[in-house]
Amino acid sequence: MKKLGLTTRIMVGLALGILFGLILSPFSKTPFVKDVVIDSVLAFFGGAFINLMKVMIVPLVSVSLAMGAASIGDIKKLRRIGTKVLGFYFATTAIAVAIGLFVAKITGVGKGMKMGELPVGEFKVAEQDKLINVLLDMVPKNIVNAMSEEKMLAIIIFFLLLGVAITALGDKVKNIKVILEEANELVLKMVELIMEVAPIGVFALISKVVASTGVDVLLKLVGFVVVTLIAFVIHTGVYQIMLVSMAKMSPIKFFKKFLKVISVAFSTSSSNATIPVNIETLSENFGVSEEISSFTIPLGATVNMDGTAIMQGVAAVFIANLYNIHLGPTQYLGIILTAVLASVGTAGVPGAGMLMLSLVLKQAGLPLEGIGVVIGVDRIIDMFRTVVNITGDAVCTIVVARSENEITDMEKFNN
After folding, report:
1. Does 151 reside within a domain?
2. What is the pTM for the complete model shown?
3. Is 323 inside any structural domain?
4. Which of 9, 190, 261, 308 has its CA 20 to 30 Å from the CA of residue 49?
5. Half-sphere exposure of 80 (CA within 13 A, CB side)
6. By residue range, what is the domain housing residue 229?
């Protein structure tokens, strides 16, 4: 009997997890189901898988970034690629939040609803640091601390600098470059081994989310969820237009090859957790040079939050309608700018979208209490927006790789 491929096994785990979660949902308040099944068994297997993925993030990002920058071998080329990548990320994030605002505005989501009819959860707004301190925090002063605290931008800056230095020194440090290449192979093999237990982890994670959220909360906020998903679909269409026009790739072909990464993103709700499998998939399935993907994917997981930006736009209009507050053109523009800037440095982990939303609502003068309404379905939306986030990272990587002639295996790209 032919063994099922990893992608198929992950998708089976995902489907069974949703089904099991729906079965558990009506009994989620009973002590045995809540304490033993959901908060113990499912929490353990899901949490263990997340931890295994997360433990590989810092080694993979640090090694692959340094190796990628060193392999490019030309500082001018590195600068050119960096400009393309950042330009793509910021432009698509601005488009994303504009789509969210537009779809929410024309659908009138939240109008006619009353606060008393909706579930309200607790949300404590984190105290925000001064902008100058946030920017300074991106520049590492202690790389060991930055790695232990998973400050991704600081890690990215340090190891890019290391890669540039290796490029500048050339043959003087050729042995270090070989060590980096071997370390990268080792890290990728570890990720490959971890992915063998992905179907179990995905099953546990998705079961816990579906069982804990409850169908009643979802039904009361179905309008907000549906409008957000519509905006996600529209923006995904923007990506596909870019793929066809800039990379000459069929969207159907792209999604078939990218399904494994989507399933991991959907179940973990973490852009960072998909970094290893995203880089591996782009190399194995699309023939993209690791020099490019090692640079674009870790950077994208940190600064490219298109799905999250869409949710900010929809949530801002939803909360404004809920409180009967009129939003003018200036406020709409402010929401777009704030969402784009807030995406820089926001952690690619579950729940980070709520922190960004608090910044957007503050800027627009909207009540932060509104977060307590949308937080009830945030975990469900988080799964979908993470898929949009990492899809944008992959599309950017493919487009940039094609423009730089960095598709190392055109047979894989076209197959």
Report:
1. yes
2. 0.79
3. yes
4. 308
5. 10
6. 6-414
